[in-house]
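Pinned message: reference record for Peptidase M56 domain-containing protein
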Amino acid sequence: MEEHIMIEKIPRAELKVMMLFWDTDKVLTSRDIVNIMSEEWKSITSSLVICFLLLLRTTIFRIFNKGFNYYIWLIVIVRLLFPFSYFTYTISDSKFQYKPILNEVDYSNTVLIIYLTIVILLAIYRFIKYLKFKSLVIDLSYDIENLEINNLYNNLLKELNIEKHIKLKYTYEINTPSFFGLFDNYILLPPHNYNLNELHWILKHELIHYKSKDLYIRYLVLFLKCVYFFNPFIYLLDRIIYHSCELHCDEVVLKGCSLENIKSYANTILDSIERSSRDSNNYTTGLHRKSNFEKRVYDMFKNKGKSGILIALILCLLSSFTYFKFDSIISKPINHSLDAPLPVNTGKEKSFTITID
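Predicted structure (tokens):
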């Protein structure tokens, strides 16, 4: 009776090593070849999924909301985090003889060691940068003592049903408002003149990032960039997820808002983009990237009928020029003491010039 060796639930990488010690005395069937090749090609399926989702994103997925178009990318993230599969494979004694291959040189271990070394070095580099930035935030930031700002912040926490204590701080280490922190969370404000209306949208935007757990997704993508540093699709995935994240955040912030409120929110984003020319941080979420700005503005206004679309088109057209001015809505001034090192805007009306390279 023909004997069989059962290999159950063995990772394909281990199976490949084991098969080096078998020498076939019979031609493999087409089914055997397909099974083996399918395991080999699983390493690139994530790249194919990215391309497939990109195609759907520009066609079918356009009818869904921004939340769907954002969280659908978790499929790719999970696939990349857990690339190994387990399976059952049967090896027949009639097909294989146990003959050690003694003279064959195998470089797979050397390649694996080099790869793991690069991954570990990249991970250590990013982790050190994170620790340095966190140290700067803790050491060179301070609490906001302005009563009106704190009242506004506390009201937003209640409105969004957030019970966790998220520290609100000023810091010179950033140029745009950002949400930061893996365990201890911070909302960081740069030393700029903000009025209450702008602060309302800024703080709400960052708190929505907290509620959506966007920073954790951001860190997962950074980890994947270390592991799959050789795959250009990972860098494309990083850009897509970041942009989808901001679109989703805009959608949640502006849900049920009037056209004037959307205009005010867009105005705040434009101001932040102008200030972001020197600010690029992988460890925060915030209003600091210029990419796909026209798309964000258009999506803000497209659900507001013809008038909203017209405003969006005008804003997108103006953004193609080097300079333009967009007047913000009149908002209540903030009384700020002279002792505080970081003033907020005390004027009743504000305008600014935005430079987009």
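Pinned by admin. Summary line: The chain has two domains: 4-102, 113-335+342-355.
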